[in-house]
Design a protein that fits this description.
The chain is of the alpha+beta class and 369 residues long. It has 2 domains: 124 residues, PAS domain (Beta-Lactamase, 2-Layer Sandwich), CATH 3.30.450; 150 residues, 2-Layer Sandwich (Heat Shock Protein 90). The chain has 10 helices and 12 strands. Strands 2-1-5-4-3 form a 5-stranded antiparallel beta sheet, with helices on both faces. It starts with a helix and ends in a 6-residue tail after the last strand.
Length: 369
């Protein structure tokens, strides 16, 4: 008697679990015919359980889907293997399409003969709709980004030649009329020359920015110490004129685009030299350590630092925060960000005004291409 009561209690507990879950619990025989289906099918497909007993899942599917799922079911029956995360389209009683995610395991009699499958259906219709919307948004963003990159490339490339001509003639005019007119006229011409030169630098940087992804070189195993050496050689004049001291730790072997990695070091160290305190030689420390995301590189300086309200904007294109005190186009750090992201890493800055900055970026051991 006690054993029977215990069995009844277990059956009641199982029934409560099955009938209160949001998923549909079912059982089919070796022919795929429902021998049990839980009441939750009512809210998902609109059928009463009794309406589906004796039918198959294929009876409530679009014809092409029914054929696909039947072929899958036949393969499963032959392999006698459990399966999971199988997506399939079903028709509700009123004709709507819902997407179910199905998992099931085989069950057997005491002799080991296969009797059928027991499984669970989960309604993922809304999730699939959200995934489709996300795919559309991502596709649109990708297209827009490609259009913007193409526009930036064409605009900057096509503007270079006429701007060179303007700059050359302005410089020629400046040399020829210097001292012939009053000081104010000389000042106007000098401003025009300066503006043209700055525009030429900006267009050159914009062209480089637009080509980070499209014209990057191949990734290869490289000594980042040697790449740092190349960057420092390119900055030799700026280092000498500023009296900068560059300290460096042992640098690791990396999987990277060597040309872009040199540019990355060059931009970050060049920034550290440019944004130095008046009357204080820059001290720059370049380091690398192993971290959770791969290698973490740091470029630390003792410069003017960055105000808290500007911390999130420093990597945005054309953003400048120091007026004419420090020359530049506002593209250097934006290029750094693009290079780091192309390598599968991320870049950020830690800084306090007057206390210098630490630019950090990660580099995975090997980017999956």
């Amino acid at each position: 008697m006690k054993a029977r009561e215990a069995i009844r209690a277990e059956e009641e507990r199982f029934r409560n679990l099955v009938e209160t879950t949001n998923d549909v619990i079912w059982e089919v025989d070796v022919n795929g015919v429902y021998t049990y289906i839980s009441p939750q099918v009512r809210s998902i497909l609109g059928y009463e359980p009794e309406e589906l007993i004796g039918k198959t899942p294929f009876d409530v599917m679009p014809d092409d889907e029914a054929q696909r799922v039947r072929e899958f079911f036949d393969r499963v029956m032959k392999s006698v293997e459990p399966f999971s995360y199988f997506e399939n389209k079903n028709l509700t009683k009123d004709g709507r399409v819902v997407v179910l995610e199905t998992g099931a395991v085989p069950f057997f009699d005491k002799a080991g003969t296969l009797l059928g499958y027991r499984g669970i259906d989960r309604d993922i219709t809304e999730r699939k709709k959200a995934e489709k919307e996300l795919e559309k948004v991502l596709a649109e963003l990708t297209r827009s980004n490609a259009d913007l990159q193409q526009f930036a490339f064409v605009a900057s490339h096509d503007l270079q030649e006429p701007l060179r001509a303007v700059t050359s003639y302005l410089q020629l005019l400046s040399r020829r009329i210097k001292g012939r007119l009053d000081e104010e006229a000389d000042s106007f011409v000098a401003s025009a020359v300066d503006g043209a030169v700055r525009m030429e630098v900006m267009i050159k940087d914009l062209l480089e920015f637009s080509r980070v992804n499209t014209a990057g070189g191949a990734f290869e195993r490289s000594d980042s110490g040697a790449l740092l050496d190349a960057a420092l050689a390119n900055l030799a004049t700026a280092i000498s004129e500023s009296g900068a001291e560059v300290r460096r730790a042992k640098m690791p072997s990396v999987y990277a685009d060597p040309v872009q990695f040199i540019r990355l070091f060059q931009n970050l160290i060049g920034n550290a030299i440019k944004f130095r305190k008046h009357g204080e030689p820059p001290v720059i420390e370049v380091g690398a350590r192993e971290g959770f995301e791969g290698w973490v590189f740091t470029v630390k300086d003792n410069g003017v630092g960055i105000a808290p309200e500007n911390m999130d904007k420093v990597f945005v294109i054309f953003q400048r925060f120091h007026g004419k005190e420090f020359p530049g186009t506002g593209l250097g750090l934006a290029i750094c960000k693009k290079i780091v992201e192309r390598h599968g890493g991320r870049i950020w800055v830690e800084s306090e005004p007057g206390k210098g900055s630490v630019f950090c970026f990660t580099l995975p051991e090997k980017k999956v291409l």
